[in-house]
Amino acid sequence: MTAAATRGAPGLFRDVLAVALGAGISGTGVNLFILPNHMADGGLTGLAILLYDLLRLPVGPMLLVLNVPLFALASWVLGAAFAVRSVAGIVLLSLALTLIPIHAAVHVKLLAAVYGGLLSGGGLGIVFRIGGSTGGTDLVARLLRHYFGTPLGVGLLGSDFVGVALFGLAEGATAAMYSLIALFVGTRVVDFLMDGLDVQRACLIISNEANAIAQAVMQELGRGATHWEGKGMYSGADRPVLLVIVSRFETVRLKSIVARADPEAFLIIHQVHEVLGEGFRTLERPTHSPRLGA
């Protein structure tokens, strides 16, 4: 039984509706802000926009044609359910770019870049949230995330840069700069929609009072702690190490607990995204079964 069948028709229908919403929002950003102000979106959409500016070839149909080979590769790697949502995303984005009138909602290029990036990135983020794609370098970003854990916004920014560079060679440095602004805003919105405000703190605590600290963390913060043995390479002494994950609001209380138990402790705190598991967000099953073929 395929992952798509396991997910069921109602779930897949909801996904397609979400893709339709995302494609409509993204298409609105392109046709009302980016395209009429002579800027490019990233990747294949940017290439389609360039062909429109140079040859007046319609953006929607050209995007559909350009996506065919890349979609075939991504669907083979990422599975049937992803393919269904990606087909919907590619077709619906192309349809949105065809049906939404090309009209400049604002004529200040900086505002157009910001608004266009917000809408384009917001639409993509909605599609990415349910595991789909609108094609182009979105597919490249999905593959980078699948194999290397690269944040989707970072993958989009890197792979889309080539499209903006080509657009800049044809349209000039000013158009390329505004396009980069729109692209940067869009990728930040994608990452926000994917990660949200789920920013936590990972704390490494090196202390001979690790047991006392762990007990206080569990009792006062209600958080777990993981203990392992470390060794100081300078002193050669064995030192207990604790890993504790807390919310940003619990960081001050954690530092107070450590200072109370061992003022000489060594404490490292850094920011982490997507903490999944007990006490945080639930780790969800993937909606597709990737195939890693030869």
Provide a compact summary of the structure.
The chain folds into 2 domains: 3-195, no CATH class; 199-273, Alpha-Beta Plaits (2-Layer Sandwich), CATH 3.30.70.120.
Description:
A 4-stranded antiparallel beta sheet has the order 2-3-1-4, covered by helices on one side. Helix 3 (43-55) packs parallel to helix 8 (152-171), helix 4 runs antiparallel to helix 5 (80-99) and helix 4 runs parallel beside helix 7. By secondary structure, the protein is α+β, with helices and mostly antiparallel strands. The chain has helices spanning 3-7, 9-34, 43-55, 59-78, 80-99, 109-129, 137-148, 152-171, 173-195, 210-221, 251-261, and strands at 199-206, 226-231, 238-247, 266-273. The protein folds into 2 domains: 3-195, no CATH class; 199-273, Alpha-Beta Plaits (2-Layer Sandwich). The protein is elongated and about 70 Å long.
Tally of domains: 2
Strand segment tally: 4
Which ranges are low-confidence, i.e. pLDDT below 50, for 5 or more consecutive residues? 1-7, 287-294
Question: Per DSSP, what share of the residues sits in E-state strands of 2 or more residues?
Answer: 5-15%
Measured on Cα atoms, how large is the radius of gyration?
Answer: 24 Å
The percent of residues in helical segments reads: 55-70%
Q: Count of helices?
A: 11
Summarize the helix and strand pattern as letters.
HHHHHHHHHEHEEHE
Strand line-up in the sheet with most strands: 2-3-1-4
- The end-to-end span amounts to 22 Å
* Biggest beta sheet summary: 4 strands, antiparallel
Mean pLDDT: 82
Structural class: alpha+beta
The shape is elongated
